[in-house]
Amino acid sequence: MNGPAFEPIVGRYLTVEILGEPCRVYFEEAGQGIPLVCLHTAGADGRQFRHLMCDEAVTANYRVIAFDMPWHGKSYPPAGWERTEYQLTTERYVETVRAFCKAMQLERPVVMGCSIGGRIVLQLAHAHGAEFRALIGLSSADFQQPWYDTSWLHRPDVHGGEVCAALVSGLIAPQSPVERRHETLWQYMQGGPGVFRGDLYFYRVDGDLRGRLGGIDAAKCPLFLLTGEYDFSCTPEDTLRTASAIPGVKVTVMKQLGHFPMSENPEQFREYVLPVLEQIRNLR
Amino acid sequence: MTSDATRREAPSVERELADRFRRALASDTPALRELARRGAWTSTSCLVGIGEVATLVRIRQGVPATQADIPLLCPWDFSVRGSARAWAALWRPYPEPGWHDLFALTKRGEFRIEGNLQPFMANLQYFKDLLSMPREATP
Predict the structure, then answer these.
(1) Which of A80, B22, B48, B84 is least buried, going by the fewest C-beta atoms within 10 A?
(2) Kindly report the CA angle at A247 between A202 and A250, in degrees rounded to 5?
C-alpha cells in the first residue's frame, strides 16, 4: 500500500528578531542545494512560489525557501499591531530579509523577489551584495509610475480583499491559465486589512530608488531582472531603464506573462527562470 | 459625447462598437448570468463612452440594462470613457500588452473613469468583467 501523496513542500515556523521585535515567521521549503530565498509580492504570501517548489528541475539543485513576511500569510503581525498602522519601509524590508537569512543560517543565498520583492532586491544589490550569491528581480524596477489611489485598499465601504484582487487582476497576462489566475487572486483576497496598502508605502513613498543604486557590482553578485510584457505596473520599459544604470545586469522581457510570473503561469515562467538558475549554479 | 438622438454624427466605428457593447449586455449568455449572480448586491448606474457615443448602463441587483437615448441632465454615478481604438483593443481575444485592462488604459491615457467611484471600486471585478463582455471568444 502506497503512503499519502505528499507534495515535497514542508512548512515550519521560526521566530526572527526584526529591528528589535520578535516576529513569528512562517516559511515553506523544498529541495536541496543552493539556498534560494523567494520574496512574495505586496499583499500576498509565499504560496506564490508553490509551483517552483514542486519543480524537480529546480529543487534538484536548489533549496527553495519562501517565507511569509510579518503581517502576511501565516506570519502574524508583531505583538501590539492593533495600535499601529502597518507601513513597510526600505529599512524594515532589508532587515526582514537579512534577519530571516541569518536566522535560517543560510550561507550566501540567492534571493529572488517579485514586485516589491523585485524592488528590494535592487537595494540588497546596492547595499549588501556581498552577502548574496546572486539576486533575481521579477517585475523589478527602481521606480514605477503609480496608477491608482491606494486609499481604496482600506476603507469600510469597499471590501479590501475583493478590491485588492480586482485591482491586480489586470496585471495578469490574458494567456495565463484560468485556474492559476484565480489562485493568484485568492491570495490577494485573503490579505489582512490595510496590509497591501502598507506594503505599497514602500513601493510608492519610501522605496524610490532612482539615482540611489550606484555601486552595484554585478560581477561579484550577479543580478538578473525579468519582467513580463503584460506588466503595466512595472513595465518592461521601467526595468530596462533601471538596468541601463547598472553595468553587467542581465534583463529578460518575458512573453505572455504579467506581474506574477511564478504563480499566474508557472509553466511559462520556468522557461525563463530555469536558464537563470542554471547560470547561477555554474558560477564559480 | 452624444446620445442616440445625435449619434448619426459619430464615426461609424464608434457606433458599431457601441452596438456591439449593447448587444453583449442584452444577450442571455452563461457569462452574463454568472455576472448577475456575482453582482446580486450591485445596483448603480454608469455612463459608458465609446468615442462620441454614450450608453447608459443601469444595474439592478447585478442585472444590467442599457439605454442609448439619454435625456439631458440624466443622472449617473460614474462614467468610463475611452477612444474607439482602446475599446476595440480591449475586446480582442488576446489584447496587446498595455491595452488589456481598464487601468492599463487609464494609465496610458486612453480611458477616463470619473464621477462617484465608490460603487465602481466596491464592485471592481464586476465592472471589469461587464465592460469586457463584448470580448471576442478566445480561440
Answers:
(1) A80
(2) 75
B98 touches A at CB < 8 Å: yes
Residue B64 lies in a domain: yes
Is B139 a member of any domain? Answer: no
Chain A nearest-CA distance from B45, in A, is: 17
Sequence-ordered list of residues with C-beta below 8 angstroms from that of A30, at least 6 positions apart, any chain: A7, A8, A9, A10, A53, A54, A59, A63, A64
Q: How many domains does chain B have?
A: 1
Q: What is the ipTM of this complex?
A: 0.95
Q: Which residue bears the cell 473613469?
A: B113
With CB atoms and an 8 Å threshold, state whether A174 touches B94. Answer: yes
A40: domain CATH number is 3.40.50.1820
- Cβ of B46 under 8 Å from any chain A Cβ? no
> Which domain CATH number covers B65?
3.30.1050.10
> Which of A169, A189, A196, A232 is the best substitution to test chain B (most B C-beta atoms within 10 A)?
A232
Q: Tell me, rounded to whole angstroms, the distance of Cα A31 from its chain centroid.
A: 19
Does B108 fall in a domain?
Answer: yes
Residue of A nearest to B92 (CA): A174
Per-residue pLDDT of chain A (284 residues; tens, 9 = 90+): 789 999 999 999 999 999 999 999 999 999 999 999 999 999 999 999 999 999 999 999 999 999 999 999 999 999 999 999 999 999 999 999 999 999 999 999 999 999 999 999 999 999 999 999 999 999 999 999 999 999 999 999 999 999 999 999 999 999 999 999 999 999 999 999 999 999 999 998 898 999 989 889 999 999 999 999 999 999 999 999 999 999 999 999 999 999 999 999 999 999 999 999 999 999 97
Find chain B residues with C-beta within 8 A of A169's C-beta. Answer: 101, 125, 128
- SS3 category, B115: strand
Q: How many angstroms from the chain centroid is the CA of residue A13?
A: 19
Task: Using an 8 Å CB-CB cutoff, list chain B residues near A162.
Answer: 124-125
A174 with B95: Cβ contact below 8 A: yes
Neighbour tally for B139: CB within 10 Å: 5
- In the A/B pair of chains, how many CB contacts fall below 8 A? 51
Within a domain: A4 = no
Q: How far is B53 from chain A (nearest CA, A)?
A: 25
Closest chain B residue to the Cα of A156, Cα to Cα: B122
Q: How many domains does chain A fold into? A: 1
Q: Does the predicted model carry a pTM greater than 0.90?
A: yes
Can you list the positions of beta strands (E) in A7-152?
10-18, 21-30, 34-39, 62-67, 110-114, 134-138
In a domain, A5, yes or no: no
Asked if the structure places residue B137 within a domain, the reply is no
